[in-house]
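Customer ticket, subject: "Can you confirm the structure for CysZ protein?"

Message body: Hello, I'm evaluating your service for our small team and ran a test protein. I'd like someone to confirm that this is what the system normally returns, since I don't have a reference to compare against.
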Amino acid sequence: MANPVREFLGGVGTLLRGFTLLLRRPRLFMLAALPALITSLLFLALFVLLVVNLTDIVGWATPFADGWDPVWRGLVRGAVSVALLAGSFLLMVVAFTTVTLTLGGPIYDKVTELVEKELGNDPGELDESLMTSMWRSIRQSLAIVAMSLLVTVAVFAIGFVPLVGQVVGPVLAALLGGWLLGIELLTSAFDRRNLLTIRERRRHMKTRRARVLGYVVPTYFLLAIPFLAVLVFPAAVAGAVFLTRDLVPAAPHRPGPGGAVTGPDAPGGPGA
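Agent reply: Thanks for trying us out. I re-ran your input and got the following:
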């Protein structure tokens, strides 16, 4: 059985390897940072709006505490404030990833292709029409955002528990939010291996949970920091390819043009 600590650190390493590779391609790095910059400005404005109105929102959500002793009222509303911020972070990070990947799709596909070719045995692009690919991507992104909404509600509900909610809420948000983030970030590399569904991504992620958490949790926290996310996002996309190769060591066979089999194990290929 693999050492969980070593696996977790290995997951952190995939993100660092993404940084290292893209630093050798500064023009592509800067191009890939542009969609993240645009999205960061939008989500930063939304988060500032939330913080400015946080007291009013929490007061509206907890009218039952108006007549309580000030100490208990403060504890409950403080816990709710922390849970609301943690849940909002979760939702915004996942939504930020979805919007940024949509906005910069061709750029991030190029980043994925660069890493695949750099590492060798590139499984190649998926032979799929643009409309089919777009429709599948939209469906899956909406499903991931919907799941993040459910987690946000759960984190917010936990926040009503004094003391416990202030600790459990943010931890739960980081773990579950990071996991959803990983499902989204792995899309491009998994698509190139003809693994097209969220279920397939989750199945492979579960085989090495500690390594996946080592990649997604730091990425989650770094993407939650305004403007640092601009630099982290391209590296996270590149790191997703390294992680995918850890989860799916060999690209599955798939029919190429004329029914030929492509991939590293194809007849005459590197794995033959």
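A couple of notes from the result: The radius of gyration is 21 Å. The chain is about 75% helix and 0% strand. Feel free to reply with more questions.
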